[in-house]
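Researcher: Can you fold this with iron/sulfur cluster in place?
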Amino acid sequence: MTRDHDAPEREAQNDEQARRALADGGTDDAAAGADDVALDPWGSSTVSDYRKLFEEFGIGEFDDVLSQTPNPHHLMRRGVIFGHRDYEPVADALRAGEDAAVLSGFMPTGDPHIGHKLVFDEIIWHQEQGADAYALIADLEAHSARGMSWVEIDEHARDYLLSLLALGFDPEEGELYRQSDNRELQDLAFELGSKANFSEFQGIYGFDGETNVSHMQSVVTQMADILYPQLEEPKPTVIPVGPDQDPHVRFARDLAARMRFFGVTEAYASFELTDAERALVGAVYDARDEYADEPDRPRCEEAGAWLAEADQTALDERGVVVDDAVRDSAVEKLENGGMEPLRPRVRFLDLNATEEAFEALIEAVPGEKRRYDEHVDAFDLDAAEAEELAQEIELDNGGYGFVPPSSVYHRFMTGLTGGKMSSSIPASHISLLDDPEEGYEKVKAATTGGRETAEKQRELGGKADECPVYELYAYLLAGDDDEFAKEVYDECVNGERLCGGCKEQAAELMQAFLEDHQEKRAEVEELLEDLDISLESPRRGVAPGDD
Ligand code: TRP
Ligand code: SF4
């Protein structure tokens, strides 16, 4: 890979590579345009329509879990954190004072800016709510996917860490690490890699024959990052990230499940059913009074015969939508089952268990059970009890017992010059290292959602929803003060607020924030030196391009 020393150019080059890598599905255009809903970790990161993320990718609306979340952060209250995957277990654990963890990672490719501050704040907030907190420097990813030299990486890594500490991360309680010098992490990455293959990398990330192997390694490393908080013991873990990282989250959730010793499913007879068949057979079981000679022992063949003839209304009542192919295959399996009675049960499938672990599980299943080659059926357990037992046996026998990691997603900040906020366009973002006066000037020069003239603004009101300056208030400058944020918004849309004064106020607040933040950064310098994290990579001067 070429390694010039001009970061913006390199970033553009890499974006271009990532775009080209997105060979299929018309995402090429999407990555370059404003309508992008392709979720590409190394490509463009603007999202014009957040609703599509809910529909197309199954991300949940954060609002639905807001009331479950204790002392929600202002970014949650204001909809900046807009989405989640499976956040409920994390919220529940925080509320109940039970174990939970938060982890996110930062690629040290440039200065930390106010977009990264969102994630710092999310980690710190979860830490304050009692979660074990982890933050990592994704130096392997920066080197392999962005071509950063180790010298540059060291410099930026230090800046991320200082800002995180200055904003209130407690390193005594939490853990900071670099991917490159965390041996346990890399061992875990290796294990996870044995459950992933190249076709998946192609499908998920658009990797192809040109993708460098270390970039692929950085993916399994990120998978390991995401599961790292669970190495000691499984616990609900939230990964706060931008929605571009969702492919990583989904993949990590998958790998977490693939590593488990046992799969737990529900079943009705000795043979296997697909999820769709199972739903249908469940409904047929519920209708047993209609066809069984002995309703407490409905036979498979009776059930199959009934299902073959059942009209849609009989099934509609039971809330199942029948797909003909699913019905045919279910009927066939039921008929093949002959006189075997249908009986609901939970099934433990042997996925990765050692022989001892499988034996231990069979031993531990209470009540009536039946063992088969690759599974054991339990008749006196419900699904939740079965899950718990499976995890317990796995842990006792040296497994990880991972629970699927959760995530929360924040909106991308609009660039101060409009368009996307980009670390390669200095005027578009405010770096946490910007000179406070420069921060002031950048806000003063920002694009607004204002009207052409003051009269029009008074008459029609400003467009706060499209205004990068309003975003600064909502995301950062108003801090925890909801009333203030609302006042700015209302005054703007009512036409009481004019952009000149509004920007002046924002610029002053920004300047004060930067002054304060940089003072705090200076204060935590010593703290950083004392931490157990290396600030100079041993790889410096070894890798080509390093000096
Ligand atoms: N890939 C992330 C980025 O591009 C960085 C990262 C590495 C990360 N490991 C992680 C983020 C684990 C969240 C969790 O910025
Ligand atoms: Fe934006 Fe403030 Fe102008 Fe409203 S008044 S459009 S919030 S700069």
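Model: Folded with iron/sulfur cluster in place. The pocket of tryptophan (ligand 1) is lined by residues 41, 103-105, 107, 136, 138, 141, 222, 225-226, 239, 241, 245 (CB under 6 Å).
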